[in-house]
Amino acid sequence: EQAYENIIVTTEGRVGVITLNRPKALNALNDALMREVVAAAEAFDADRGIGAIVVTGSERAFAAGADIKEMQAQSYQDMLLSDWFALWDRFCDVRTPTIAAVSGYALGGGCELAMMCDMLIAADSAKFGQPEITLGVIPGIGGSQRLTRAVGKAKAMDLILTGRQMDAEEAERSGLVSRVVPADTLLKETMEAATKIASMSLPATYVAKEAVNAALETTLAEGVRFERRTFHATFALEDRSEGMAAFIEKRKPEFKHN
Ligand code: CAA
Fold it and tell me: E.C. number, please (predicted)?
């Protein structure tokens, strides 16, 4: 068991939960918190007993961005030499499906962390934004790229150039979030979705996630080819035999995650 200071890590059945826990700084992402989130996500990813990972914050804030107080004194050389924020690439390499459950502020790096997750479920209280421009910087954990892919150029430019916040309703309408739910049911609904995903064949969820992500990285023809070959490959899974047999026999499948 690893001791964490900035996050709380729990499991519920096959679901791993990472709760950002720096309440005094509205869960601002400092270096220590970033390392803990990445370590916890990688530990869950290495555990075959975990089939979905939930990342959440508090009711008031998912995360109010990268830690401005920590960054303030840094120079260009510091940023370049440490390759500040590059560690987050490892969060994106996690193969287990990830869900962000967002209540309150998801600003700057907070919005970017939510966008690095595979699914984003928002409380009706959620507020999204990339306010970096108000500090004289720009998004640094993929915001300009992932927001643009999620909501298109028009709204991404609007948010990134003005730094304004977008509420949950606008975020859903724009395609940034999968679902909006009442704030007091956010965790319940997210855990239900996560439990459902975690009940599926783990290797099938790995390749499903890979196939969807390929859509953002390649041409349609290449993506369709990748999907078809990967679909063929699922026929090697024992879980595929079980899933189809269970359907024919009108019973629930018992996936063994292999
Ligand atoms: N970094 C460090 N500390 C932060 C923080 C951040 N991003 N966001 C909030 N805090 C701290 C505040 O400094 C304050 O601490 P003190 O009590 O010690 O002063 C505490 O959290 C509570 O915040 P507020 O008093 O400001 O709370 P509020 O309710 O009045 O306002 C807010 C809430 C609108 C979210 C406001 O805190 C805010 O604007 N935060 C900064 C948002 C921001 O600019 N984020 C982008 C950061 S840069 C970035 O993320 C770069 C990147 O791409 C990775």
Answer: 4.2.1.17
